Amino acid sequence: MTLPDIKIGPHSIGPEHEPYIIAEMSGNHDGSLDKALEIVRMAAKAGAHAVKLQTYKPETITIESDSPDFRLSEGHELWGGRTLWDLYTEAHTPWEWHAPIFEEAKKVGITVFSSPFDPTAIDLLEELGAPAYKIASSEIVDLPLIRLAASKGKPIIISTGMASLGEINAAVEAARSTGNEQIVVLACTANYPADPSESNLRGIPVMADALGTLIGYSDHTIGIGAAITAVALGACLVEKHVTLQREGGGVDSAFSSEPDELEALVSQTKVGWQCLGQARIGARQQEKEGLRFRRSLYVVADVKAGDAITPDNVRSIRPANGLAPDTFDLVQGRTFTQDVPKGTALSWDLF
After folding, report:
1. Residue of 92, 109, 116, 94 whose CA lies nearest to 28
2. What Gene3D superfamilies does this protein's entry cite (predicted)?
3. Judging by beta carbons within 10 Å of its beta carbon (0-12, 13-18, 19+), is residue 213 exposed, middle or buried?
4. Residue 282 — φ and ψ, nearest 5°?
5. What per-residue confidence (pLDDT) applies to 278?
6. Average pLDDT of the chain?
7. Is the bond preceding residue 94 a cis peptide, omega within 30 degrees?
8. String of b and e for 319-334 (b: at least 16 CB within 10 Å)?
């Protein structure tokens, strides 16, 4: 199935284009607008195509409660024992920061959009002219939110961490019900950080066939190996959390990429995509010169008319202008019809 490209800002997304790289800021601004703006500049300098925010307030995503329902498990690797209210208070991007972040992104030439977590977030992002929407993994079951975001007629990117195929399909159909076919579904493991062995990236082509959408990858592993593998399996978009530095770099910094790693992600996923090429077997144009220097049968010693062809005067050597090496058994013992100097490609008219 050939799917149409999707365009976000100036960049097209699809199999015929280099992977679209999204730098996820999340809460790694660490409560500082200056740091948020620096992350935007860093992402642009590293070559990412977009920087993504998360648009919510603590009160639009949860309630202030200390009961077990609203507290992370004690064993959570990063945020064990914290309440949702406390975590989201720390991690949220204040709404008044959105406009200056959008302005900075425009200034440095990088696209910016966000994950909305409720209808008021979509209202804000519409006012700012966000060119796309991302649905976070935990919101994949919020079909009314997906319908509202999709109804704006912009590309919608749906992350699938924790979701069954049925839940993913329901989210895709919710988006399609608005007439919006600009959908990218992201393979994702919603663990922070995720072990590479939990990635199950062989599911990428399965998802593409089942859903009939472009597929990308939301990567929570450490390093860039998983992202390159995802591209090799058909992902046309990669989302990666980023930070200015992991040490003290923000709430998600432990599994986020630093600037040099983001730069490597951009360059190496592009290399991985370039390596895919076409589904064909055979010599490439760039191998044309190499074809000249395959082996073939050559006269390797001066011979006279009437001399027999032997292993001493005809051998398989480079280059490839003579008869094929496998023909030697056919010609051995035949006699030359003329004098032939050393270095002559063996041909049928010489014997």
Report:
1. 92
2. Aldolase class I, Antifreeze-like/N-acetylneuraminic acid synthase C-terminal domain
3. buried
4. 145, 175
5. 81
6. 93
7. no
8. ebebbeeeebeebeee
DSSP 246-270: STT--TTGGGSBPHHHHHHHHHHHH
> Residue 79: what pLDDT?
65
Q: Judging by beta carbons within 10 Å of its beta carbon (0-12, 13-18, 19+), is residue 278 exposed, middle or buried?
A: exposed
How many other CB atoms are there within 10 angstroms of residue 243's CB atom?
31
Measured at the CA of 268, the angle between CA 266 and CA 270, to 5 degrees, comes to 70
Q: Which fold has domain 9-57+92-276?
A: TIM Barrel (3.20.20)
- Taking 80 as the threshold, does the pLDDT of residue 176 lie above it? yes
Strand partners, 296: 317
Three-state DSSP class for 329?
helix
d(CA 237, CA 269): 10
Catalogue the E-assigned strands of 126-205. Answer: 133-135, 156-159, 183-188
**269 to each of 127, 217, 254, how far by Cα in Å?**
33, 12, 22
